[in-house]
Here is the input.
Amino acid sequence: MEAAFRGGTAASATLVFVVIVAIAAFLVHKAVPALDGNSASFLTERQWLPDREPSRFGIAALVAGTIVTSVAALVLAVPVALGVALFVSEYAPPRLKAPLGYVTDLLAAVPSVVYGLWGVFFLVPRMQKLQEFLAAHLSWVPFFRVTPGEPVGGRSLFAASVVLAIMVLPIVAAISREVFVQVPQSHREAALALGATKLEAIRIAVLPASRPGVVSAIMLGLGRALGETIAVALVLSAAFTPSLRLLRAEGGNTIAANIATKFGEAGVPGRGALIASGLVLFAITLVVNVVARAILFRNRRAA
Amino acid sequence: MTVRLAAPTLPRWAPVALGGAAAALTALLVALTPAQGRAGTLVVFLAGYAAVLTVASYAVEGRRRAADRLARVLIAGAVGAALTPLVLVLGYTVARGAKGLTGYFLYHSMRGIGPLDTHGGIYHSLLGTLEQVGLAIALAVPLGLLTAVYITEFGRGRLAAAVRFVVDVMTGIPSIVSGLFVLAFWVIGLGQGFSGFAASISLAILMLPVVVRSAEEMIRLVPDSLREASYALGVPRWKTVTSVVLPTASAGITTGVMLAVARVTGETAPLLLTAFGFDSIRRNPFKGPQSGLPLYVFDQATSSARGAVDRAWAAALALILVVVLLYVAARLVTRRNRLGGTS
Amino acid sequence: MAAASLAALATSACGSDDNTLGRGTNAAPVNVTCGGSGTLTGAGSTFQKNIELQWIKDFTGACDGTTVDYKATGSGAGISQFGEGTVDYAGTDSLMKDDEQAKADARCGRGNTAIHLPVAAGAVVFTYHLRGLPDALRLSPATIAGIFTGKITRWDAPEVKADNPGVTLPTIAVQAVHRSDSSGTTDVLSRFLDAQAKDTWTLGVGKELSWPGGQAAKGSDGVTGVVKATEGGITYTELSFAKSNDLPWAKVRNASGAYVDAVGLNVSAALATAKLESAPTGDLRADVDYGTKEPAAYPVAAVSYVIVCDKGNKNAELLKAFLGYAVSGGQSGADQLGYAPVPTNIAVKLGLAVQALT
Here is the structure.
């Protein structure tokens, strides 16, 4: 019985290992023929026309769109998320702490399709004025530049980034909160006893000790933003010219959203091409997650 | 010459008074510049308040206190900024969806709904979601638990390290990639066709790492003294694990599982590629395409048929309710968690 | 606990597939000949979706014990799924390519062929959002090509003025919106412009094009949604989508020089001049003549096919009965839904082909 139990657990562990390796291997197997038939460079080509003769597709535009929206989302979300986390761990009266924690977790539990629906029907029309305002007055900010006469706003990269920001905010906030709470109370009290203000106590005692944890929280949020599919597919105007101009009404595209929108009409080479792009997404999120885990792990051992 | 022991501070009424000043400033700005809308006015007011308060504090209390006050205002602003979208998302969904969420809507499918019809319902999708998620739990939980037990109780060697790494990697699998895999491998490769079960597999792949991680953490929290007491009584290891370690950790593990369930219940992307969708009630999840609640929302949101958008909102509200119920249930279980661990 | 009670709610009280309360709102009397029983699944073209849903409503409402399900996944997916055997019939806006045909034939069994049946017809219209324009905009093929290739950037450009003499056009920018996904409507647009505006249209022919700019959205509902929200917007879409969004659409100049509206009769007139290619298997292909000289013809017309096996269909009785309704009684509701009835010359051949299915 002992051996059987041990064997059973080992078998499940092995199965989990095999499944993930199989996923990677299988996706590669499916992607290779499409990549072979590609007449353009997979890495630098901007068009996505895999079912044409000759087949022609590349991930340049998709990777650019994926990274730009995710990073913009983090720029918007991280300060707010850290503020919320600090509020819960440092400022909130004890009675408020638990409800606030529930509420941020709830924000994380709202399904992405609901965010997408809300983004399309509520947010985008109401953001038009703001986007036009930014384009008119803040076009000196690098990413807000617009070409005169070009349509501005609508379902732009910026709109998609805002929706993504709302989605990653609770993740970053929840993990950072856990990290802040782990800093021993005595450290804060020591700083306060020396006459530090609350802000100084946070800067001296809390933030330095939590830096690796916060970085890893941000990376995990980034992982979520990179892989988000349905919300982006609903909100973003899918253009195929890579551009870092967030406010262009022409929009952009991301790897995940491209898979969701193109899958219906894809032929056999098209499916292979989409799987290849899925692998790239897998690789990017893998790197991000492994780095995040490594930071967290190193931190744990040091602490 | 008098020695002042306490640094000068702003009187208690100062923030209120300065708030009034900021409001006046805002009114002036809004009146003089082109109208900015409600949200714009609020932003101008908050920025004005932060500026006025910081300046006043700097003049009276000095640089350090001013910085502290500014930080408080900014952090309060962050909390407001985080709560606003939550209120707007939930509020708008309720406003658009509540009137459509009727008994008829809950107990009818979309069978025979023409493009000009505004009725129809979500019963087939709700049933599909419950079956798909249930099967995903049946796949992921036993496998995840056994794996976690292996890692914590038995695994010392290379396999345990490899599995732990792989589980970390799995946490980051985008849901669409999981769907792609099941489509290419199960649906087409093995010729199984679209089914609710195919969706369950892709959902289980997404659940598995969460289950393993939370079970692993909870099992580690079980004090060694409990295990040792059991061993001292001559209880074999497998029995110790199944009747001492797992029951002690069960509440924490249940919470982890339910949070994972709440997460995958709302997944749309994998369903798109695996369950495919079906307008009539299909009770058997193993054969033939099936609908699911998130997929239903997506389909209706992107349909031109009359009434489709209203159906999308009502279904979105139902989906949120399902997820929130799961979430609240998970929290209730946590309260009874004897180990008092984090979730 | 809560989840369990929810599960109890959903499974204990039985839900219903019966949605017949709306039958009274159906204007056309339903004339269905039932046959077969069981389940039929179709997938593919989004162009067909609304009329398919109407056929399904009429047919399954009249015939007990039948279920028909159509999922608008897109033509490409429909064809692949038909070849893979996961659906009973596919809907597609364009003909199968050789490799697709081979796969579909293999699925039908030895010696059998997968055939095209043009069951739905409709117009691709140019729907726009311009405030204060009293009458329908008039557009020539060259102007349309200029707009979608980014050569015409303003509504008061000379080309638009030439099409609309005496009309005061708004002095705003043109916001051309195209499909982000591969689409049969893009294919129809490109074929029409390639044939009728060769000099201006430089993007070639296909379901996906290398657009030089402009906004994009997924699906017909996506592009019409953007136009609805964007002053100065214009896109190409099926008539039904323009109608359901309350957007106006342009009259288009045909090869006879007349500017024609996209009403059902004009579309049918254009399709009546299509070249028909029929095979003994029942395979029926319509080659639309975009340069038709018929004065009443709306030139941007399209047919959409279903693909079935000539012999060896899985649930042939039900398939025959369902398609039999689709090509006869089912055409009567076409106009109301924004489609056009299939012209009589095609409908006659269709009826025979459906009768011959086994």
Summary: The radius of gyration of chain C is 22 Å. Chain C touches chain B through 51 residues (CB under 8 Å). The longest helix of chain C spans residues 49-62. Chain C has a mean pLDDT of 86.
